Amino acid sequence: MSEAEEAQDAASTRNGWLLSAPALVILTFAAIGPLVIMLVYSFLTPGATGNVVWKFSTNGWTGIVYARDIFDETWKLVDAHMVIFWRSIKLSLITTVLTLLIGFPTAWFIATREPKARAVWLFLITIPFWTNLLIRTFAVNQVIRNEGVLNTVLLKLGVITEPMRMVYTDGAMLVGLVYVYLPLMVLPLFAALDRFDRRLLEAGYDLYASRMQVLFQVILPIVRPGIVAGSILVFVPSLGAYVIPRVLGGGKQMMVGNFIELQFGQGKNWPLGAAISITLLIVVTVALVFYTRAVSGEKRDG
Amino acid sequence: MSQAIAVEARNAVKAFGVGAQAVRALDDVSVMIRKGEFFTLLGPSGCGKTTLLRLIAGFEMPTSGVILLEGADITYLPPNQRPVNTVFQSYALFPHLTVAENIGFGLKMQGRPAAEVRATTGRMLALVKMEAMAGRKTSQLSGGQQQRVALARALAPQPKVLLLDEPLSALDAKLRKDMQIELKRLQTETGITFIFVTHDQEEALTMSDRIGVMSAGKLQQVGGPRDIYNHPVNRFVASFIGETNFLAVQRDGDGLRLAGGPRIEMPLGAASVGSALTLAVRPEQVRLVAADEAGAIPATVSNLVYIGTDTQCHLQMADGTEIVARVQSTASGEAGLVVGQRVGLRFAPGAAQVLED
Predict the structure, then answer these.
(1) What is the pLDDT of residues B123-146, one digit of tens each?
(2) Phi and psi for B112 in degrees, rounded to 5?
């Protein structure tokens, strides 16, 4: 390579950096910046009225698992925190599975319609996005609360004699999560199924596969990328859900999102909130890495 | 005799749509395909040949009629319960599986032991000469290689009948010729009944033991390649397979008379009763003789087209009727004819075919 070419190369590299500078600035300030602040705050001491005092402390991190007993000053495992973490993970996993079970037939149905009908169905799927999440969640609340639509109808019909308690339970949160995140599962599944060559179904049947074998040996392995994408799109926001557990869990049945908010609000323990936030981020990242490895790992080559 | 029949369709009708808009893709087709033969369904697109194939495969159920496999009624049996496999036009190979896994798929679904699957897959890979590609993904293969994998995959479960739905149409001309020979070899080696669908008459003539010519949902003629070529039963078959001159003729005693032309000595079968008939003559059966030879039909050379081994000689008869003759090219090139030359035409009595429609 001649000197002139090298100089040109260097110049184009420099120009490249220059052109991507705006994006880099935004990334630094909007994505990395807040994370660094959170990381720093998690190692500081809580201030009396919220905020932080600039004094190093690991209490934010240990506080996730242990708490000092206010009576005998000993450190004990905090069951309540574990319950919240476990509930978040459990509900997010169940939500992912349920949206997959409901979303797959839905996406298949849409993908097998005529192009015109397909557009209409996809449009209908996206309609809920037009309404604010808070309002949709309150709508679910209206349906399932003690004096809600469902109980009223069932009472009138005489199916039940007293209202069923549905709201402010894990089940209520699950209904909300599945309802809200279902489209995020359907859309990537549809994209994958739309690309799926349906002539392969005939090839499968022709080669002695039963319907179930065609589903598990042909369709699912081929649309796996769609399943992975949909699962991530549902699992990640479910784990960090705030509004849904707040409205349908009634503040008592907290998920991690509410717990974090609590530390920055009434709890006045910013370092703990920051530590939990970062923990959540790590949990999600690790889970995603394992999940994508596990589902795409069967391929021998790239 | 009945056990020598591999597949039989009896009065098979397949209608798409309902009521007045219903289209009969298959209109009362009955055919018997013998065990171990290479049978070709030949016809233009939309003639119903693929529909018949899909009825045999089980992808479609006939509106009425019966499909028999070795004498057993399989009309309503789902495809995964028929010992019949298909080579699809698009190959339909599984993109998530390797070549070997594709070939072993059918056996695996049948629940054969892993060792047998491996052994049969190995044999099939050797049969289609794809051993070196066993571990490849199908997307990494060329069209011809995919074709071989599709064949091996369909042959691996050792079906009683192999259905091939225009499998060569996606290949280029050279590769297609090779695959034609390859297919014939595979059929001979395996002894499996092949039912091959194509719209390419040359393909059909080259490979088939027998051909079924289809048009407009009906089976027009069934017979060996020579039979179909030399003795077409109607105008469609004569025109679809090879080039043919159609001459309007009239019955004249025990011979024929060209419309406004001379009498042609030709023994007529008793079946030909109509007075207005069509004479079908292949270009290569038209012989050119001296213009003044007795009994020859006089004509004038109107055009000469050199096509390599042959020269296509366009001739005009006295009444203006066009006829094409194929003359073998001489070493010098052009069959020793010139445009405007007056010649005489003859065709051997056995070489021309009298058609009634």
Answers:
(1) 999 988 888 999 999 988 988 899
(2) -70, 150
Does the pLDDT of residue A294 top 90, yes or no? no
Edge-to-edge order in the sheet of strand B276-281: B263-264, B255-258, B245-252, B276-281, B352-355
Nearest in space to A275 (alpha carbons), one of A46, A30, A64:
A64
Alpha-carbon distance A172 to A169, whole Å? 5
Query: Which residue type occupies B126?
Result: A
Q: Is the distance from CB of A259 to CB of A78 less than 8 angstroms?
A: no
Residue-wise pLDDT tens digits, B212-237: 999 989 999 999 999 898 888 888 89
Residue B232 CB neighbour total at 10 angstroms:
24
Task: Measure CB to CB from residue A207 to each of B59, B96, B106 and give the nearest one.
Answer: B106
Note the Cα B52 to chain centre separation in Å.
14
Nearest CA in chain A to B152: A207
Kindly report the nearest CA distance between residue B80 and chain A, in angstroms: 4
Average pLDDT, integer, range A179-190: 94
Residue with tokens 């595979």: B186
Chain A partners within 8 Å of B58 (Cβ): 205-206
Whether B127 contacts B148, CB under 8 Å = no
C-alpha to C-alpha distance for B218 and A277, rounded to whole angstroms: 73
Measure CB to CB from residue B80 to each of A197, A199, A205 and give the nearest one: A205
3-state secondary structure of B241: coil
Q: How far is CA B323 from CA A118, B212, B317, B333, in A?
A: 56, 28, 8, 21
Q: Report CB contact under 8 Å: A205, B110.
A: no
Angle between helices B99-109 and B114-127 (to 10 degrees): 130
Distance in angstroms (rounded) separating the CA atoms of residues B154 and B116: 16
Q: Determine the distance in angstroms separating the CA of A154 from the nearest CA of chain B, rounded to an integer.
A: 45
Mind listing the pLDDT tens digit for each residue in A135-158?
A: 999 999 999 888 888 888 988 888
pLDDT tens string B61-99:
999 999 999 989 999 999 999 999 999 999 999 999 999
Query: Which of B54, B60, B80, B166 is the best residue to mutate to test the A interface, defined by the most A CB atoms within 10 Å of its own CB?
Result: B80
- Mutant choice from A208, A220, A295 vs B, greatest count of B C-beta within 10 A: A208
Integer angstrom CA distances of residue B177 from B43, B50, B174: 19, 22, 5
Q: What one-character DSSP code corresponds to residue B108?
A: H
Q: Give A217's contacts in chain B (Cβ within 8 Å).
A: 105, 109
Are the C-beta atoms of residues B110 and A208 closer than 8 Å to each other?
yes
Instruction: Report the chain B residue with the minimal C-alpha distance to residue A222.
Output: B96
Nearest-angstrom CA–CA distance, B52 and B58: 10
